[in-house]
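Revision sheet: structure tokens.
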Amino acid sequence: MNGLIIKVLSISIAVVTVVYLIIYKGNTMITKIFSVCIIAAMVIYWIVYERNTRKRKKQELQRDDYLFAKENDLPLQINWNEINDFLSDSGYGVNMPMENWFMMDWARQPCVENGIKEGKFSMKGFRVLQALSNDMKHIFYDVWFNYDRGPDIEDKNRKYEAVKKVLDTKYAGLSEEVRKNIYDQFVKIYERKI
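Predicted:
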């Protein structure tokens, strides 16, 4: 709405100035030059404003992209029970050292590889863990670096909401306890890093 008002005002001022130049032939050269400068300033402002507006909207869209994980990177017919069991196992999953959880490729940690070797879960389950690791790591780093550049506390909370949303939609098959554990550790690790 503000953009439309600025456009209308800019065009109106430019038109009035041009009409003034055409009608009043007796005006001085300085006035004509001043009027042309006004028109040029309005046109330049309009072009720059439009470009910045488009750029800002594009950045906002890109910024929001990471909040919503891709649904199609999960395999079909997932056995969520085996994943819940694995993540709840005291020797595996979200109970691994916290630094490994979001700072590195979680699904490729030795405990996960051992889980596959020991038959704790299938390769299909591994793909789910890989997707979960990628989503959490992506959000974690974006939160951290965005916050370092200075967004307000509302921005940080918005990212925490993004973690909840991804867990409650894409990974809704995980038990509530596992999802809560993942979220709590995400917040705990992030708070230690800022």
